[in-house]
């Protein structure tokens, strides 16, 4: 049979006998079966079906549903192959060049994710309450009552507004009455730690995180520690690190929610973490009632103004959410601020000269108008290295029409803050650290035009609740530190440091070392 087939004519001929064609096809099937086998044929057909299905889905979404365009989706993984776990903000830059203001990436089997990369489009979307929901990660259901107690993931509506008003009022009360005291307490412990280093080089990452635990626990719960060697404080630092590990999007319980119902290691550890957190929060509530804490704190103000529609569990979860969110955002910003000013010593000296000048005039640390250059340095730090390059994800609760596209109800949307802050069409030399861009020509006031393109805390109908307190803290921290200390970079070559950063819970710089020494003009005991 094989011999006769090999001698057959393969060119098309109308007069060819049908038996010859049958013999040819049958022989071809026989060869495939013998060399490949039915299992491989089945796998090939499944793969091809999945690829064609992905292509059809992409075309259907962009042509019929009018979603923004995006890269080719592969079966099962979608567009995840284009993203980098540590540097997703950098990996997306090529897609921004190709697709522009807004594009779609299929996130595995989870559905499409919209990225908004232009400031005007972002502001337009953020203004509408149609994009004010948050995605409900499976772990949030276990952190609160099905996510109903958590201000970070509760749907936009009446209950969220009540929680938001309660949190905002408490933060404003603390900011107006005692924020300077909370900062002074934190800096006092931090300065003692700096002095003990004796000018030796150290990696500031850990001490930045610890200083935020000090501040947040004082500000949110009224907890005070004697020093960084306090055993309770060390325990809370470890608990904070555990909290961050439990909240990452790729936690096993987010990827495989059914693990919660099995005797898995992930479920066991998470249950233990939730119990420890709940016990800690209940202890803090009792401390407020018994007066075993510094009185002017956020939790205390929230409990005093408790409404019938916001129960104690909601208040506890809100306080915890503000603690975790504020700590991660501010610690990332502190790491970048120290890095940039340690390298740009000329800018550091200019900042210190401004601080020396206003100190003689008796200006308050809260008053940003008296220290415009200091304020510009902080803003430039948050522009060039935003603490969270994509902000907090949004979810649409209705169809939204934007830029001739449609974002369907239930779609997750990310604001690409990194791209907005590095847009060459808006910022001159966006990768260069230039605080002057935030100042007017005379250097005495803020450049209002520049501020239109600056959005480190996102914005709109559902902005960061603690943004005002965060800005005030950063201003007071910077003034207090650089008024009394000089900061220098241990490395001589700044190019060795990766200024693009890596994503953890926020955007952190690669490890680096600095030296912190007292200024001659410092008069602190």
Structure notes:
The chain is an alpha+beta fold. The protein has a domain at 156-370 and 459-518: Orthogonal Bundle (Cytochrome p450). The chain contains 20 helices and ten strands. The protein has helices spanning 2-6, 18-35, 38-64, 88-91, 93-99, 119-127, 138-143, 158-177, 179-197, 205-221, 231-247, 252-255, 265-290, 298-304, 312-343, 345-360, 372-384, 417-421, 448-451, 467-484; strands at 102-106, 112-116, 394-395, 400-402, 405-407, 412-415, 485-489, 502-503, 507-508, 514-518. The strands form four sheets. Strands 1-2-6-3 form a four-stranded mixed beta sheet. Helix 10 runs antiparallel to helix 15 and helix 15 (312-343) crosses helix 17 (372-384). The longest helix has 32 residues, at 312-343. The chain is globular, with a radius of gyration of 29 Å. The protein starts with a helix and ends in a 7-residue tail after the last strand. Mean pLDDT is 85; it is low at 1-16.
Question: How would you summarize the topology of this molecule?
Answer:
Elements: H1 2-6, H2 18-35, H3 38-64, H4 88-91, H5 93-99, E1 102-106, E2 112-116, H6 119-127, H7 138-143, H8 158-177, H9 179-197, H10 205-221, H11 231-247, H12 252-255, H13 265-290, H14 298-304, H15 312-343, H16 345-360, H17 372-384, E3 394-395, E4 400-402, E5 405-407, E6 412-415, H18 417-421, H19 448-451, H20 467-484, E7 485-489, E8 502-503, E9 507-508, E10 514-518
Parallel strand pairs: 2-6
Antiparallel strand pairs: 1-2, 3-6, 4-5, 7-10, 8-9
Helix pairs in contact: 8-14, 9-10, 9-20, 10-11, 10-15, 14-15, 15-17
């Amino acid at each position: 049979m094989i011999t006769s087939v090999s001698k057959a004519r393969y060119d098309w001929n109308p007069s060819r006998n049908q038996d010859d064609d049958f013999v040819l096809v049958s022989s071809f099937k026989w060869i495939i079966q013998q060399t490949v086998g039915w299992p491989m044929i089945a796998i090939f057909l499944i793969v091809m079906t999945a690829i064609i299905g992905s292509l059809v889905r992409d075309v259907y979404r962009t042509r019929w549903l009018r979603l923004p365009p995006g890269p080719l989706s592969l079966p099962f993984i979608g567009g995840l192959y284009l993203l980098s776990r540590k540097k997703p903000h950098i990996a997306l830059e090529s897609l921004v060049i190709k697709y522009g203001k807004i594009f779609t990436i299929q996130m595995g089997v989870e559905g499409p994710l919209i990225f908004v990369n232009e400031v005007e489009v972002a502001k337009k979307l953020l203004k509408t309450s149609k994009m004010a929901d948050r995605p409900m990660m499976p772990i949030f259901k276990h952190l609160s009552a099905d996510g109903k107690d958590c201000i970070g993931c509760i749907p936009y509506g009446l209950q969220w507004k009540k929680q938001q008003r309660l949190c905002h009022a408490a933060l404003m009360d603390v900011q107006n009455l005692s924020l300077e005291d909370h900062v002074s307490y934190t800096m006092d412990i931090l300065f003692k730690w700096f002095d003990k280093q004796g000018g030796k080089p150290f990696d500031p990452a850990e001490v930045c995180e610890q200083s935020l635990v000090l501040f947040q626990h004082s500000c949110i719960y009224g907890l005070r520690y004697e020093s960084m060697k306090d055993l309770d404080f060390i325990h809370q630092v470890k608990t904070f690190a555990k909290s961050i590990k439990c909240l990452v999007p790729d936690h096993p319980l987010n990827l495989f929610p059914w693990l919660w119902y099995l005797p898995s290691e992930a479920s066991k550890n998470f249950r233990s973490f939730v119990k420890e957190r709940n016990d800690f929060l209940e202890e803090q509530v009792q401390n407020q009632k018994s007066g075993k804490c510094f009185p002017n704190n956020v939790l205390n103000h929230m409990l005093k103004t408790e409404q019938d529609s916001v129960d104690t569990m909601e208040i506890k979860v809100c306080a915890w959410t503000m603690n975790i969110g504020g700590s991660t955002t501010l610690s990332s910003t502190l790491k970048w601020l120290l890095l940039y000013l340690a390298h740009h010593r000329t800018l550091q000296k200019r900042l210190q000269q401004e601080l020396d000048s206003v100190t003689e005039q008796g200006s308050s640390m809260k008053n940003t108008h008296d220290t415009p250059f200091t304020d510009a340095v902080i803003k430039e730090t948050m522009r060039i290295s935003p603490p969270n390059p994509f902000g907090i994800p949004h979810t649409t609760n209705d169809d939204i029409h934007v830029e001739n596209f449609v974002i369907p109800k239930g779609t997750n949307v990310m604001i690409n803050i990194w791209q907005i802050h590095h847009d060459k069409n808006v910022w001159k030399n966006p990768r260069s650290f230039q605080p002057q861009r935030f100042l007017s020509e005379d250097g005495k006031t803020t450049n209002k035009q520049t501020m239109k393109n600056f959005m480190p805390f996102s914005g709109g109908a559902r902005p960061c609740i603690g943004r005002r307190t965060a800005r005030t803290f950063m201003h007071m921290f910077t003034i207090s530190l650089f008024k009394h200390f000089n900061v220098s970079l241990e490395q001589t070559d700044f190019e060795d440091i990766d200024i693009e950063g890596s994503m953890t819970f926020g955007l952190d710089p690669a490890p680096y070392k600095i030296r912190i020494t007292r200024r001659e003009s410092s008069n602190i005991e």
